């Protein structure tokens, strides 16, 4: 019969809620990690509670200061703020595990005094030998042999020069908890043996340091990935011991978020998949509003028929109990579409300012990574509204606007091959029509009227009688070198009469 959840489990709500984001600074921030931070943050903001950001940096071989700075950069860019922790401080610091060794030693001493942990001297070889002798599968691991060592036996091991590890005395009963996402979960008695908290030599391990930090920092809700769910039983066992030893007064609630799968929906999204790299997504042109919106949909939804919403709407509606336990699939096209929706919500000025770094990075303004001149800056701001309605990623802006700043048009192969047989005639007629437009009146409406009269109007009215698609396609190629460009007549206005006519004539010469 399953045991009931620990009656000491927290009932914290509202402003008493405390969640944490506690990554290891290894590698680049990825989608799964950031989704964890987002859901913790959204729950804290929704309840009026607090989010703590601490760093688990005790693996000297893998952790790096560069990765730590990237974590801070990622959260800052996404505007996922925190109330206590690294960079901010707070009453429960330090917030980096590498600076908390003395704290772990003090907690271990309390557990020793309470009898919750014991010295273990068994080597891996000895454990394997005992299992074999007892007909016990090696995969079952440690056999709790050292639980009942006598003082004389411990003294004998120490006399051999052995240093003890410290193991938790796991309760011999079922462990049950209610997952906020998955419901009641029970780990049967005997599911796992007594496990090491501190290695010989005093190295505190993750199964010890993580719950201890949560306990000392008053974390009420542990919101983390489904892949960590198997370790929950060990954490609950340790929490019971921490409460008994007076280290904390309650056991936190747990919530295990669904896995994030790759686009095929068949396996977990790899940390090494470019689509999982937060900074590659930013470099491609995601804005933080769009990416935050999409990441929140990886296991949660605002409403069945609504995918696009603001940060404030997310906070107002988010509750961890409404997260779907089923795996979520990372859909690049949907992410880009939602990002495009958020781009269109920006003011023209905001959009132009966010677009500029992408133009600089693509060398649109001339020399390598050159900042725009005053005239180029004015032109970029005038051109921005022409593409804001068309973009899904800011990284597409250089391809759409680069022609406005080029001295020589670079014709794309598919654009040239798309030209109709009468392209030369169309271009010549266009030059003639535009040349009669007064320089002072060379604006969108006048340009459109002149070209429509020359190209689209019936032959009997002096035009070529062409359909607009056929008429204007060659002009688009002449101006931009591409089949797809910003609105044609507005682009001509931005280029000016002389440059527009020059480019039309240049293509005439190119195609003979």
TrEMBL record:
Species whose genome carries this gene: Microbacterium candidum
Gene: gltX
Record function comment: Catalyzes the attachment of glutamate to tRNA(Glu) in a two-step reaction: glutamate is first activated by ATP to form Glu-AMP and then transferred to the acceptor end of tRNA(Glu).
UniProt catalytic activity: tRNA(Glu) + L-glutamate + ATP = L-glutamyl-tRNA(Glu) + AMP + diphosphate
Secretion signal, residue range per the UniProt entry: none
Intervals of motif 'HIGH' region: 23-33
Keywords: Aminoacyl-tRNA synthetase, ATP-binding, Cytoplasm, Ligase, Nucleotide-binding, Protein biosynthesis
Name of the molecule in the record: Glutamate--tRNA ligase
Residues holding ATP: 271
